[in-house]
Amino acid sequence: MPISLLIVILLALSSAAYYFGRRQAVSVVGGRVRELHSLPAYNGLYVALWCGLPALLVVAAWVSFEGGVITQLVVAGLPQALTDQGPDQVTLVVNEIRNIASGNVYGDPEPAVLAAAEHYKALKGTSHGALIGLSLALALGAGAFALKRIRPRLRARNSVEFVITGLLLASSTLAVMTTVGIVLSVLFESIRFFQSVPISEFLFGLEWSPQTAIRAEQVGSSGAFGAVPLFAGTMLIAFIAMLVAVPIGLMSAIYLSEYASLRFRTIAKPLLEILAGVPTVVYGFFAALTVAPFIRDTGGLLGLDVASESALAAGLVMGIMIIPFVSSLSDDVINAVPQAMRDGSYGIGATRSETIKRVIFPAALPGIVGGVLLAVSRAIGETMIVVMAAGLAANLTANPLEAVTTVTVQIVTLLVGDQEFDSPKTLAAFALGLVLFVVTLFLNIIALYIVRKYREQYE
Fold first, then answer.
1. How far apart are CA 47 and CA 45, in angstroms?
2. Is 221's pLDDT higher than 60?
């Protein structure tokens, strides 16, 4: 029985436990629900939680530790000749055993490995059967125990709310710890990188060429890790994108919320939001095959030297992609401004444009700033459009007609293929990721400051 099917069965048993618990609660008071301390639904949830939660916790713990325990038992039974060759060789043997146990046999394995694979398969089957039996027995036993505890004075609601509060707290803690784990993993690898490359060179260096030599006699490899060209390229493309997205998105939001008829709005708003659902690779194709050649040909007619891959092409298409973020969020924020503020402005003789400029826009400014900063984060983190339209050249330039690259593109480039995380070339990706994290955090701090400032003024 697959684990997924076991979980479905446990959830089905919990649903049945809810039904029987609810019915038992009504039965013990002869149908007089008012005599119960908690509603029948809480009694049903009480039994369902007793039935499902312990069994699901056992399944989760069992699955987490099963592989390691079985592997240790199998390794302990291997001949000494296979285990004395170092941890790397033992890892290879264990992988071979797992492949043979799953039916993937390559070459002519040793008899000891075949015997270990049979042992592994037998332990796996025994463990799986024990898990099924234990979890089902625990679910049925705990459900029956909870069912017998149902009494008119049972504080089922208190128990259910305590468990739900604990689950919510655990989920929140898991989310926070996941964030902390991501930050620490990036930070530790970045520290390893900065032990090889000075942080001043990384932050202020003007040349990016992370092709470090593997051998001392290797030629054609350099180790320049100045990330300023990457930061400049990222900011240039994001700036061009925001020049396109912010005015168009904001003006479209103002028109849809204040000027457009209901019929036009119901048609235009979904069509505008379709842009947000288009895959970025489609935008990349559009930029590479349509926008970039158009810019190059137009620049040639004007006597300008335009690269086949340029920051302008990537920025324009990225701005089109970001328009729905600015437009939709700004439209929702503007519509959330109380109608009383509009009526008061009209009542003192203000025109519609004056009302928008002096009343609605300032009141909606915190939400609009949040939408714009979300769009900026989206622009900074975009990869596919830049790869296809702006190229991979780390040029330090402010000319939008030249090819540039961004931080995210270089992260992808550095981590393509089989990599060993022990060289500055690979570890540089973590340093770049840390910089992106710091920039995003800084943008969020600015957004919170602006939101608090104007919220105090207009609330």
1. 5
2. no
